Amino acid sequence: MGTVLAVENVSLDGVMQSPGRPDEDTRGGFDRGGWASAVLSADPEATQAAFAGDGTTGAMLFGRRTYLDLVGFWLGNPEPNPFTEILRTTPKYVVSSTLADPLPHPASHLIDGRTPSGVEGAVAGLKHEIEGSIVMLGSGQLVRFLAAAGLVDEWVLTQIPVVLGSGTRLFDGTPMDLEVVRSFTSPRGVVVGHYRVART
């Protein structure tokens, strides 16, 4: 049985929008993009803690926008980086109502996103088929939907010590009781918390 693990960067005021680059996601006029990468590039301890998984990744799960942007960026980057081989070979499942097969990157499988019940059923099916973690990166709209449906099992949240004042928040009206699996605070104040959703 697999578990859905959401890995997210979040500001102190809960924003998750455009952590990597200034032009990553400017929806709503957001102009503070790159806020996480600027801090993490100077904090290798926090970066290591954020990506210190348990080695049980069985698949990755993306929304359309994050899949095209993040996977496309790293697989199209000619510079050596630690993510290329993982993103190339790990099975990737992409929820979209507009993309069609074949998807542009290797080992990618389309989940039809046209109906909420279809997405819920597909992700629940993945949890039964895949052993280990089904890792989500970014994919804010999808992760909020799956959290509300009770399908996100664990979170790795890298909390960056910055207040952005605007931008799309990670959590939106879905209460959760969380159990701390482990946590790390870097000397620069970045907090990496691994949490498990407490099921009642």
From TrEMBL:
SUPFAM superfamilies: Dihydrofolate reductase-like (SSF53597). One of its GO terms (biological process) is riboflavin biosynthetic process. PANTHER family: BIFUNCTIONAL DEAMINASE-REDUCTASE DOMAIN PROTEIN, DIHYDROFOLATE REDUCTASE FAMILY PROTEIN (AFU_ORTHOLOGUE AFUA_8G06820). Residues 6-191 form the Bacterial bifunctional deaminase-reductase C-terminal domain. Residues 13-32 are annotated as: Disordered. Residues 21-30 have a biased composition (Basic and acidic residues). This is Dihydrofolate reductase family protein. One of its GO terms (molecular function) is 5-amino-6-(5-phosphoribosylamino)uracil reductase activity. Gene3D superfamilies: Dihydrofolate Reductase, subunit A (3.40.430.10). It comes from Nakamurella leprariae.
